[in-house]
Amino acid sequence: MRAEVIESLKQIVGEDWVLTSLDQTKGYLYDETEELMRPEAAEDSIVVKPGTTEEIAEIMKYANKELIPVVPRGGGTGLCGGAIPTETSIILSDERLNKIIEIDEENLMATCEAGVTLADLLEKLREYDNLFFPIHPGDEGAHIGGMVVENAGGAKAVRHGIMRNHVKGLEVVLPTGEIVNLGGKLIKNNSGLDLLHLMIGSEGILGIVTKATLKLYPESKYSGTLLISFDNRRDAIGVVPKILQSGIIPLAIEYMERDIALESAAHIGEKWPAEEGSVDVIVMLSENKEDDLYEKSEVIAELCEEHNAVYTMIAETTKEQRSILAVRSNVYTAVVHDAADALDMAVPVASIADFMNDIFALAEKYGARTPSVGHAGDGNIHNFIMRENGERPSYFDELKEAMYKTAVKYGGTITAEHGIGKTRVSNLAIQLSQKEIELIKGIKKVFDPNGILNPGTIVNKR
Ligand SMILES: Cc1cc2nc3c(=O)[nH]c(=O)nc-3n(C[C@H](O)[C@H](O)[C@H](O)COP(=O)(O)OP(=O)(O)OC[C@H]3O[C@@H](n4cnc5c(N)ncnc54)[C@H](O)[C@@H]3O)c2cc1C
Q1: What is the residue range of 354's domain?
Q2: For residue 364, is it within any domain?
Q3: What does the pLDDT look like over 249-281, one tens digit per residue?
Q4: Ligand 1 pocket, residue 72 CB under 6 Å
């Protein structure tokens, strides 16, 4: 990076908050897709850590004038390369914007700066009697800003929906340096086009999120987790729409193949309770009355038995529930070292069984190992494409494309929650028409006329 740029940024944020040597910056050159993207061309990038919205506005004005790419960065837990620079850039880390500004118990809203981690927000909520924030992507190191622009999902979407359903207000710095405030503590708001919702899921290409107001809920008093095992995938997945049709709305319905459950359990030193069967479904319930919890657990257990379940465990103690959920949560960390990619396609819930059959037929055709877990209640399955002898297999791109086409054939999406980022740009046209891609490029141009913000994310560079 040019010396005068470094100097100008130090003038804005202070000497200590600009990192320039590769030793200091290399941790900021990757996200969780490290293996898919190798940003050698970006090693000359620098990291700035502004402490206020106004400093971010100054940085953006400067970068826009000098035409320097800016890559926003939150917790770096992203799974699509969005936070990875691909050319010499200013990496703008929001880590110093880490204040929880307000917990508004009256309106059930929390207002946070963008760099607050999910872990910090959840810890803060524990200070209150019964406040609950439902969005939980697997890694609590994710920042609120990153969760907003990635429109994060996670397991509990079955009952509560995704990040989009919980973001009520945003403060955003535009690529040209203006600050806008979108929405507020409102449940209804119909003024003009919905720029708030355009910003949610925008993957850091339209603006830098600096503050977010989020919807909270009273926490239910009783929770239970059912672990139900089946002999085959079709039975396990086939029961998911039946549970949803029963009128019970669980917090989560997760699907996990046994091999991967055992791998994850071994990874974290837990014992997986189910021995019968080869595929598991986990149903999380939370209710205000204990009787409701038991009654709903019984209904689900019976439904699963009718659908050929071979083992049912109703975990009631916190310890048992935590153990099952920890195994599910750690699947990614257990297998990532051996995975070439983790896909996150989704299809309409009633089509998952057929979709998965096609996916496994494809895997067989290519001789690939594609262990799967997923948020089955949302029709969202994570298929890993595993490496061979430590390398990305030669059929990788072809198989991935064929899998994406299969999802689209069922009316699905190539990415339910991880986003397009930089790793899926070349696959976007599998799902979207040329007209839709042109509209996205047109919107990008309105917000970012010089194409400086996160170039190469969602759409190709300027
Ligand atoms: C083990 C594991 C499990 C996961 N499970 C899930 C899951 O179940 N569901 C799910 O949805 N995701 C999941 N994820 C993915 C990830 O946690 C989410 O995408 C999360 O929202 C990313 O937040 P982050 O702060 O780490 O963002 P980063 O990785 O830092 O950035 C992600 C994108 O957001 C942009 N960005 C970051 N901060 C800002 C900002 N303040 N303003 C504008 N743009 C910004 C970046 O440029 C980049 O494009 C998982 C990740 C891991 C490692």
Answers
A1: 332-431
A2: yes
A3: 999 999 999 999 999 999 999 999 999 999 999
A4: yes
